[in-house]
Amino acid sequence: MTAHDPTSLERLFHEPSRLAILSVLCAARDGLSFTELRDACRLTDGNLSRHLKALEEDGVVRIRKAFVDAKPRTTVALTRDGLARFSLYLDTLSSVLQDAKRAARQEQDSSRAPRPLGAHA
């Protein structure tokens, strides 16, 4: 059985706010407005902007600015590459967590095993 290397997780995604942003965007095929995304992730404007800048610079999200009814609207969507990379991240994270769960179970089972007389814990 192969243990998956936790250090192989893409660090760009391994941050709670970015994980939330990308998880929300996965369910939004056409993207979300900045406001919808901000509210769904419970982030401040500045915090969301900072994370989106990092994700956009790495090609994970696409940010479009347009005017709708004479009002500015920013729409954020996952890029095809971003979706593929995030999916790989999720698969790797799932494998790492399964490995950890299995190891914890084995450790727990071995700690329940009867000890020979005179053995110390």
Q: Give a quick account of the main beta sheet: strands, pairing sense, barrel closure.
A: 3 strands, antiparallel
- The proportion of residues in beta strands is 5-15%
Structural class, please? alpha+beta
Tally of separate helices:
4
In CATH, what is the class?
Mainly Alpha
Number of domains as seen in the coordinates: 1
Helix content: 40-55%
Distance between the termini: 28 Å
Q: Give the ordered list of helices and strands.
A: HEHHEEH
Q: Gyration radius, to the nearest Å?
A: 21 Å
| CATH homologous superfamily descriptor | Winged helix-like DNA-binding domain superfamily/Winged helix DNA-binding domain
CATH topology: Arc Repressor Mutant, subunit A
Structure description:
The chain has helices at residues 16-26, 34-41, 45-57, 80-112, and strands spanning 32-33, 61-68, 71-78. A hairpin with a 2-residue loop joins strand 2 and strand 3. By secondary structure, it is an alpha+beta fold. It has one domain: Winged helix-like DNA-binding domain superfamily/Winged helix DNA-binding domain (Arc Repressor Mutant, subunit A). It is 54% helix and 15% strand. Helix 1 packs across helix 2. The protein is built from four helices and three strands. The chain has a three-stranded antiparallel β-sheet with strand order 1-3-2.
